[in-house]
Amino acid sequence: MQIPHDTRIALDTVVDLVNTAPDGTTGGDPADGLADVDALFAFVRRHEISEVTSVDARDLGALHDVRARFAEVFAAPDAAAAASLINRLVAGAGTTPRLTDHDGYDWHVHYFAPGASVADHLTADCGMALAFIVVAGEHERLRRCEAPDCGRAFVDLSRNRSRRYCDSRTCGNRLHVAAYRARRKEAAG
């Protein structure tokens, strides 16, 4: 599956955003990764979100709402349900597609309106990236980790759509080791 650079960045961002939710929502970290304005600003910097220079408590509340709505997309049972959720998200963000070539990147499309809030910015760009996945007939690539104690979101970009864990070095390896030990214990009697 060929994914443009800007779409890949938006997919990575939406996955990270969904995975900042506290335990109970994603099964991941028990702490909210966007607990305060400082954490939100760090998220903006870490993802190099263009045209966002400051954030406040209103942005934080709006992004918590957007995060929950994106989590619903990853839980959607089929492409039609995902498309409906994405359509509502993107329509609410007031998308304004425009070509840009900033910061050393070649031409790409920004979907957020100039001066948009961080929530509208991420809703527009990340929503369109998720829309790209649905349009490509690849909704099933929007997944949750199958490790029983995890549940983090990820986009399966493996060639054969076989990825089962958010990170094969942590969740995947931990489950494979546990299965190996269980087999050895059973064989030992």
List the helices and strands and how they pair.
Elements: H1 5-18, H2 37-46, H3 57-75, H4 79-93, E1 98-100, E2 108-110, H5 118-135, E3 142-144, E4 153-155, H6 168-188
Antiparallel strand pairs: 1-2, 3-4
Which tags fit this structure?
189 residues, Jann2411-like fold, 4 strands, 51% helix
Please give the CATH class: Mainly Alpha
Query: How far apart lie the N and C ends?
Result: 46 Å
Q: Total strand count, please?
A: 4
**Assembly form of the protein:** single chain
Q: Structural class of the secondary structure composition?
A: mainly alpha
Put simply, the count of helices is: 6
Give the name of the CATH architecture. Orthogonal Bundle
Which fold name corresponds to the CATH topology? Jann2411-like fold
Molecular shape: globular
**Main sheet specs:** 2 strands, antiparallel
Mean pLDDT across all amino acids: 88
Number of domains: 1
Widest sheet, order of strands: 1-2
Spans of at least 5 consecutive residues whose pLDDT stays below 50 are none
Strand content: 5-15%
Q: How much helix, percentage-wise, in residues? A: 40-55%
Tell me the CATH superfamily. Answer: Jann2411-like domain
Radius of gyration over C-alpha positions, nearest whole angstrom:
18 Å
Write down the secondary-structure element order. Answer: HHHHEEHEEH
